[in-house]
Amino acid sequence: MYKKLFLLLLIALIPLFPQTLYANEYETPSGIPLSEVEDYVDDYVSDYIGKTTAGASIVIVKNNEIVLSKEYGFGDIENQVKIDSGTSIFEWGSISKLFVWVSVMQLVEQGKINLDADIRNYLPNGFIKHLKYDDPITMLDLMNHTAGFEERIFDLGYANANANQLKPLDVGLQIAEPNQIYRPGEVVAYSNYSTSLAAYIVQLITNQDFNEYVEEHIFQRLGFSDSTAYLLPESNEQIIKNKVNGYELVDKGKFERSTEYYMSLYPSGAINGTAQDLAKFSNALMPQSQNKNVLFENEDTLKKLLSQSHSANEHAPGIAHGFWEYDGTYKGFTHGGNTNSFSSNFHIVPEENFSVIILTNQASELDISYGLVKELVGEKEQHTVSSSHLPSSKSLEGKYISARRIESGFLNLYAYLVPLTVTSINEKEIEVSLAGATAVYTQTYPDVYKMKNGHPLFIPTSVLYFSNDDGDIKQVHTSISDYLPMDKSPYWLTINAILAVYCFLFFILSPFVLIISNILSRKRKKQSLKIRKWIYLLNFAGAAFVLNVSLLIIRMLRNIDRAYTEVLPHIVTNYILTIISSISIAFFLINIKQDKTTKFQFYLYLLTIISIILLISLLITWQFYS
Q1: Which is nearest to 146 in space by CA: 164, 133, 165, 160?
Q2: In this structure, what DSSP letter does residue 409 have?
Q3: Which among 107, 130, 103, 132 is positioned nearest to 117, based on CA atoms?
Q4: What DSSP string describes 113-162?
Q5: Exposure of 360 by Cβ count < 10 A (0-12 exposed, 13-18 middle, 19+ buried)?
Q6: Which one of 339-343, 516-520, 576-580 scores highest in mean pLDDT?
């Protein structure tokens, strides 16, 4: 009797088991039912498309099947041409880097690359010249962005009008080689150069241009039909025809067409393709239970690729051989991409056989490419340790500069203008601000902070780890790029800013004052002092300095993607003006005793000399001579 009742009860409960055990088969990692995903995405993007985002192509994949492939907005706003997720071509930006790391792992699998070997074993003798440390740089360092290179933007690529400046990969690497400023393995400083250097090593080992290698060993295997690893202005007519326009946001609802951009260091960010081709790539990165992996001969190679290769703390996400780990409901692997005109995000959750690809034709787009992904993959449930074991957030307050920074040349100034600022809210919470955006973080483990809410800018760095040395903060670690304590005091920076404003105003106004003074002197028929001409020359040299530096800054603000030769005339001009100023000061001092000056004139002339010396000192300090 009891057995019969038990059997009937078991039969009645059977329909519940699939729903309980396999509910996640029919929903996103965050718990959105797949049957409701399209409505959810439609509703989400409606707040941004046409307002802050020009257009987007979105593909969501579950269990190797596309559950959503949809386009929003326009690929050509002026002519109202809509986007097609199957054929519309977007710039993938730094998602391109993932194809470098897959290429590297293919060669690791073949025994042709050792991830722990010094990369100089693979490069021509003396290929890398600007090394500060003797420590070896390994392929893992390149994958983890811990080779120690500073950021460099000159000669990375060129605007459409200068596409003829494109160089072969090896030449481009030598022209754009940055200085090494950190010891290898110690600081994560995101590096385009590192990735392109790794691609060049692939090229050397295979005796095949890197773009050709990718086409043959990745694109063809995956069945890509609408993507190219290297887009040249005079080739790939069909892809160029299907490529959507890229835009910059001018004002809410107002977009301006961006300039086309071509990269010499193309492996770091030059792939152009469709969202559906990226979906094929995501499927190949999922665990293969039955089908043979098309990218690797051995399934263990894929497991190694998606295993952690760098982390500063066990409770903080790190890097998995070039992929960024993401602290979602389930562990994710991701990489974003940004170019002059496009923003993108590629996110996979192998544990859930889930992926989401978002491509937008909007420069610096965050709301959809990061905000929507966060909604789809969810956030990891936090199990915080007892608050009594958590240190106070007060010690974290301060300003930090990005490790991904330019240290050599006048652009080093930028890092100090846009620091990461940390402010304590209470013992366990901090507010983090960067470039006008803010977010609140909560401490979950000692010195590990998880983003609670805030601007989408902080989603890729949703977990921060503050390492310290005897209570002094040493680094702020993220999976993308670290931050370091400001190495210049706020007071020193403020004084520099005040002095710069003073010098600029002085030499903007002084030529007019001198002209008026000269006119009045002639009317009064006063005898002209011999030394006055040297003071005139100093003032006009100072005005020329101000004009030259101002033009340089304006040009860089209008377009940072330049060859160094384009800014070199400004640098040379500073040297010439410095020589003219030095000669003028010397002749003034030689002849000062020959002319009788009033005290007022003497102190005015002295002020001019002090001001020009001060201006030159500031230009030297901020490297406007290199």
Answers
A1: 133
A2: S
A3: 107
A4: --TTSBGGGTSPTT-----S--SPPBHHHHHHT-S-BPP--TTSEEEGGG
A5: buried
A6: 576-580
d(CA 146, CA 138): 9
Write out the two tokens for 554: 């304006």
For residues 208-220, average pLDDT = 95
pLDDT tens column, 598-616:
677 778 888 899 999 999 9
Q: How far apart are CA 563 and CA 555, in angstroms?
A: 12
Q: What is the spatial distance between Cα 362 and Cα 246, in angstroms, rounded to a whole number? A: 6
- Copy the structure tokens of residue 59: 């593909």
Provide the angle, in degrees to the nearest 10, between the axes of the packed helices 192-206 and 97-109: 40
- What pTM value is reported for the model? 0.90
Tally the residues of the chain: 626
CA angle centred on 624, ends 176 and 604, rounded to 5°: 175
**Strand pairing partners for 625?**
none
The SS3 of residue 481 is coil
Closest CA to 157 of 262, 246, 234: 262
Element (H, E) at 608: helix 599-621
Residue 85: exposure state from Cβ atoms within 10 A (0-12, 13-18, ≥19): buried
How many whole angstroms from its chain centre is CA 453? Answer: 22
Rounded distance, CA 268 to CA 94, Å?
Answer: 6
In angstroms, the CA 66 to CA 75 distance is: 22
- What value does the CA radius of gyration of the chain take, rounded to a whole number of Å? 29
DSSP string, 41-93: HHHHHTTTBTTTBSEEEEEEEETTEEEEEEEEEEEETTTTEEP-TTT-BEE-G
Q: Where are the beta strands (DSSP E) in 427-471?
A: 429-434, 437-445, 448-454, 463-469
Element (H, E) at 276: helix 275-284
